[in-house]
């Protein structure tokens, strides 16, 4: 009786997940159809057992056939909702993950006296797990939406697209004058501030940075801030962030961050702020600046600035493929 | 030319015409395998795993009606075009003809 068993198993596999009102009917029809096809093959001289094998092979994977009967899509996220899915997956992590990172730093630094290594590792693991959760739940939500939509609406987008959804940041526009000026002024001001602090302040000013740092590190730090100003001018002249400029920016930021962190770890970067502020304003001296918090701020600012440059460089590289309006790099 | 490419485009072109072929043929009642054979004889090769679910879908949309025939040893489900299905067929055929004319007009004058 093996000839019937194979058909039985096939029909059962196709119809097991179909609703009760159609399942039995589909099963009955499919059984007759398979029998018809097998008979036709046997009539043309094929051995019965082989004929059944061939007929079922032609019908193909029963789970695929079941989906065409049942109308369930054979994918998690279809072309209708995919653009919305991608948009959300791009926006959400960019907003949520930095908040999580900063939040976890702040909470840990204030509440515990653990080493930075531990705090950094924990923050990394937290960001990783939040990121994975985010991706999973967004995907699941969209899959549920996809699966629960009526078949007729399946290729339709969730929301009608409108022209004002177009991004306002068009990558091939030339770099604005305001952006350049702001960037240069900020960098030069930072360099001047640092230089002034390192030179040793007097009068009413508060000494925050340690004036006793080795001269070479003072010069290096001020120089690295000035590099940012030079970069802003270069970006303006070229018309966009190029990969090289972005790489220089990342390198100078990283160098500044490493230098700052190193000085911080040797307790050379800052003055003894509680004492200084206590003398100056008569505040209590019964507190201390958590080094890990300062370190976290340095890391976050560095990563932020470097990422921005890289993102802009990537955009303008892509834009170069797009429209002729891209400014030619000179 | 690349045969897979040709086959792909032909399949794409034929896909929408399966409904047209079914509605045309089902002016007289057919059961699934019988319809498959009839279509194949007319030069319209369709896979069973495409045709059988399609018949159900058309029935669900009200374009076909069905009836079980249990007179013979093997009970079979017979499909035929409903009133709505006939109206749909008229529209599809009209579209088919107008497409054919449109293609002819695009091609016209230039020769081949």
Automatic annotation (TrEMBL), chain A:
InterPro entries the UniProt entry points to: Perm_prefix_1
Transmembrane segments: 91-111, 123-145, 181-199, 215-234, 246-264, 287-306
Protein's recorded name: Uncharacterized protein
Domain of life: Bacteria
Keywords per UniProt: Membrane, Transmembrane, Transmembrane helix
Residue runs in coiled coils: none
Organism: Knoellia aerolata DSM 18566
Automatic annotation (TrEMBL), chain B:
Spans through the membrane: none
Coiled-coil boundaries: none
Pfam families named in the record: PadR
InterPro entries referenced in this protein's UniProt entry, alphabetically: Metal_resp_DNA-bind_regulator, Tscrpt_reg_PadR_N, WH-like_DNA-bd_sf, WH_DNA-bd_sf
Protein name from the UniProt record: PadR family transcriptional regulator
Domain Transcription regulator PadR N-terminal, first and last residues per copy: 20-89
